[in-house]
Amino acid sequence: YVQRRITRRAIRHGYKLGQKTPFFHKLVPDLVALMGAAYPSLAAQADRIMDVLRVEEERFYETLEVGMQILDEALAGGVKVLPGEVAFKLHDTYGFPLDLSADVCRERGLTVDEAGFKAAMEKQKAQGRAAGKFKMDKTLEYSGVGNTFVGYDKLEAPAKVVALYLDGTPVAELKVGQQGVVVLDTTPFYAESGGQVGDEGVITSGSARFAVGDTQKIKADVFGHHGTVAQGTLAVGDSVSASVDLEQRAATQRNHSVTHLMHKALREVLGGHVQQKGSLVNAERTRFDFAHNAPVTDAEIREIEARVNAEILANAATQAQVMDIESAQKTGAMMLFGEKYGESVRVLDIGSSRELCGGTHVARTGDIGLFSITAEGGVASGVRRIEAVTGFNALTYMQEMEAMLGGVAGSLKVTPSEVHARVGAMLSQVRDLEKELTALKGKLASAQGDDLVLQAQDIQGVKLLVAQLEGADAKTLRDTMDKLKDKLKTAVIVLGVVDGAKVQIAVGVTPDTTAKVKAGELVNFVAGQVGGKGGGKPDMAMAGGTDPAKLAAALASVQGWVETKL
Q1: Which of 190, 198, 255, 521 has its CA at a distance of 20 to 30 angstroms from the CA of residue 500?
Q2: Looking at the whole model, is its pTM more than 0.85?
């Protein structure tokens, strides 16, 4: 974040000095020559650093151009203060940071309404919190001792209710139908942490049954079981049996364990620069965000899948050790930058992966069953996201893909193995037909153009031609316009066409007439009557509209407009 702000400020100053194309990344070789000896990694990663900076520049130039346009519009008309809402829109929608808006305003002797910016920011944050899954009326206040977590080894355990909450307020009991939070002295339920979602399950006591829909931390060592009393009444002090949903936990563990293997495979295939930037692990899938400045290719995805599935087939036992942080560092365990670790940490070995992790995992890599990547894409500048499935979810995914392929093969009347070649042949045929259609449209337009020349009227020595064509697209309109200009010499030409529920309009003015009639003004005059707008040069302009029923009347009004100009 800090590097991006510094880099963007430098790029903007280069932009002001006339550098309208990416230049900043070209400084890397000089930087390596000056400082490579002191910073060996700078020289070792010079190519990657140049690529990252180049991509950053290209993206920022787009941001800069759009942002400056919005800024210029907002500051037009003698405005002295840039509204906070505009500054926030630039920041939130276009990636145009506040300090950059402030720089521009300062150079023009203006200011930014930073209070308004902060208010807009807080409003968005409040909306985000309100949309959160685990919102509560107020923070739970708990002052008792921490609970004992036994969920690494047990999925069912006896416990005692030490606190109950209804709408965020401590209560003595929860009755049937009420939603609340239960705190136990001992729990096998894993509370959401490290990207792994909280456990689901049930807490029972005699006839009372509390369905747990989620488990969240109230404090580091106090877990809150969120759910609903399905039957009976649950009271503080009750002895209960806490049981985790076995299938949900097993599926979540498969996805969490495979995330460790995938992280290692990503670093091996894409490079050591790959770092975790976020994750979500639940029973359905694993979602993993990581630092990387380019899309992951199909070949790389196949290689990552192969490496992870090889680890799964090896069926190595998972090992967990609790040790002090210094000893953990000496083992070479992967530690996530920005993560907060206590004095004691849990070092987890899964296959060839070694990371610090407090989550729950499979006993052996073979328990994961099968691994398949389902999606890959960018989520932020320099951050990619991979989604993957394991076990039965992976099997279901592959069966769905096979069924889809089979359906396509059936429609094409070929075997699944022949689909690729058949689709390629069809695409080639479609391209040929499109070329043929374009040629036919051109011939049709040319034929119409020859007939249209005879319809032109003479107004003050200028030929005026207004007509509606049939079956023409934008290219055909332009081509027809060029031919009509050549034939009419001194002319104003307006052509319209209806394409379904849309209208397309083209206006052409020969160079010797643009002093009096501007194509851009005329096209907007016509387009405004059919629910649209357009623009262009003085001699050629295009527009679109959404009301075909009014096209005839709009074209009929052209003659009067042109006569007033001439």
Answers
A1: 521
A2: no
